[in-house]
Design a protein that fits this description.
The chain is α/β, with parallel strands linked by helices. The chain folds into two domains: about 180 residues, Alpha-Beta Complex (Aspartate Aminotransferase, domain 1), CATH 3.90.1150.10; about 250 residues, 3-Layer(aba) Sandwich (Aspartate Aminotransferase, domain 2). It is built from 16 helices and 16 strands. A five-stranded mixed sheet has the order 2-8-7-6-5, sandwiched between helices. The protein has a three-stranded antiparallel sheet with strand order 9-14-11. A two-stranded parallel ribbon has the order 1-10. Helix 14 packs across helix 16. The termini are far apart. The structure holds ligand F0G. Ligand F0G binds next to helix 4 and helix 5.
Length: about 450
């Protein structure tokens, strides 16, 4: 088989500024050992997130010029609405400025004290918006999804049995909706099978609970279904995506991922009453329902991006480039969450740095070293991001300690990936020198964005 190549040519480029190791040591210290606080110009390869970091196509940029900036009823809105409706088959399409704005509106309307929201795994902003409403966010990831070393096709699947047990226990009247996140970002970018979406929907139907999709990475999920699930090999990714949406009563979306834009999101709903309540709140917090916190040009770019994301040559390259890095790492015995996910490689920090206890943040230690060694920015998804304290102030750690290397879409080439593999290998070879960290400042909510750290000297 021939090499799978980038299915695009580069028309417009941005320079990368290089730093040396000495400079980076100082930069890291000034940033409190938190790469969120490093200036982007001081990064060589930026894998902090795949969100809002995509390269737009020439056609998307043309759409930017063509955007209709009318306050109400702009033609760009109608193009956006038609595209989202065609894909999701939902009646009410509500634009928002990004995914969490859709979440904020949805959970403000449906949440509140005494309510529960089950999910395969909540993303951190989703959880924060549920909890901010006073409700409880509960995860039901299937067992194999919790084991980074197990190779399986659909590690993002919902534990449907546990979900049903929970519904019986809490009462369906206290569960305004259940959600499936595709792909499961916090659990390694792992896909959810169509079978699992169907089974979850069946349980939800039995108890009269609507099912929602957090669809940020719906196209990557659909591509995994095409290549891994029996019966889907001859369907188009678009047909598969439409089938996924057919089991959902509503959708929240961050267009910053699988709509290939730098900003945007939406809510897609079937329930008229819910849509009316959401629109009313939208007007207070986001804007008029035909722009919802976005410019007309952004709506054009989303509509175009939603077409381009379903191009199977693009998806083949996308999934392959993540797998390419994954294979380079596993060949050298570097522990990653397996198999490689759709948008990111996740280093398994517990196996990478077993000498650092969870309360000394092994993932953060690797994140710092990747920056120091090669100017690579990644993010800890473990005790820093999800850690909580018990009543005695002891850290309660999540099950996994991961370091995410998330790939912006259509931005980096194969030689960037080769460089990355070299940097990670270098850090791995010197892993015994990795130090634990302690937190010197933290905010009460979503602390990972602004926390400051210091290394624990041995
Ligand atoms: N849901 C999932 C699964 C996400 O990954 C994100 C964002 C959101 C919701 C919120 O969307 O950022 O547009 O408000 N994830 C980004 C990330 C931030 O880095 O994984 P948003």
């Amino acid at each position: 088989m021939k090499t799978i190549i980038e299915p695009f040519k580069i028309k417009s480029v941005e320079p990368i500024y290089f730093t040396n190791k000495e400079e980076r040591a100082e930069i890291l210290q000034n940033a409190g050992f938190n790469p969120f606080l490093i200036d982007a110009e001081k990064i060589i390869i930026d894998l902090l997130t795949d969100s809002g970091t995509s390269a737009m196509s020439a056609k998307q940029w043309a759409g930017i010029m063509d955007g209709d900036e009318s306050y109400a009823g702009s033609k760009s809105f109608f193009r956006f609405e038609k595209t989202v409706r065609e894909l999701t088959k939902k009646k009410f399409i509500i634009p928002t400025h990004q995914g969490r704005a859709a979440e904020k509106i949805l959970f403000s309307v449906l949440g509140g004290k005494g309510k529960y929201f089950p999910n395969n795994t909540h993303f951190d902003t989703t959880r924060a918006n549920v909890e901010f409403s006073g409700a409880e966010a509960v995860d039901f990831l299937n067992e194999i999804g919790k084991h980074p070393e197990i190779i399986a096709d659909f590690k993002g699947n919902m534990d449907v049995e546990a979900l049903e047990k929970f519904i019986k226990e809490k009462g369906s009247e206290n569960i305004p909706l259940a959600m499936i996140t595709v792909t499961n970002n916090s659990g390694g970018g792992q896909p959810v099978s169509m079978q699992n979406i169907k089974e979850t929907k069946a349980v939800c139907n039995k108890y009269g609970i609507p099912l929602f999709l957090d669809a940020c990475r719906f196209a990557e999920n659909a591509y995994f279904i095409k290549t891994r699930e029996k019966g889907y090999e001859n369907k188009s990714v678009k047909e598969i995506a439409q089938e996924m949406f057919s089991f959902a009563d509503g959708v929240t979306m961050s267009a910053k991922k699988d709509a290939l834009v730098n900003i945007g999101g939406f809510l897609a709903l079937n329930n008229e009453n819910l849509a009316m309540n959401c629109r009313n709140l939208l007007i207070v917090t986001e804007g008029f329902p035909t722009y919802g916190g976005l410019a007309g040009r952004d709506l054009e770019a989303i509509a175009q991006g939603l077409d381009e994301i379903l191009d199977e040559n693009y998806l083949k390259y996308r999934i392959r480039s993540i797998e390419y890095l994954g294979n380079k790492l596993t060949e050298q015995g570097i522990p990653i969450l397996e198999p490689p996910g759709g948008h990111a490689i996740y280093l398994d920090a517990k196996r990478f740095a077993p000498h650092i206890p969870q309360n000394q943040y092994p993932g953060q230690s690797i994140v710092c070293e990747l920056y120091l060694e090669g100017g690579v920015r990644s993010v800890e998804i473990g005790s820093v991001m999800f850690g909580k304290y018990d009543e005695n102030g002891n850290l309660i750690s999540p099950a996994m300690e991961l370091v995410r290397l998330a790939f912006p879409r259509r931005v980096y080439t194969q030689s960037h990936v080769d460089y990355l593999a070299e940097v990670i290998a270098e850090v791995y070879q010197n892993r015994n020198n990795l130090k634990g960290y302690e937190i010197t400042y933290e905010a009460p909510i979503l602390r990972h964005f602004t926390a400051r750290f210091k290394p624990i000297e041995r």
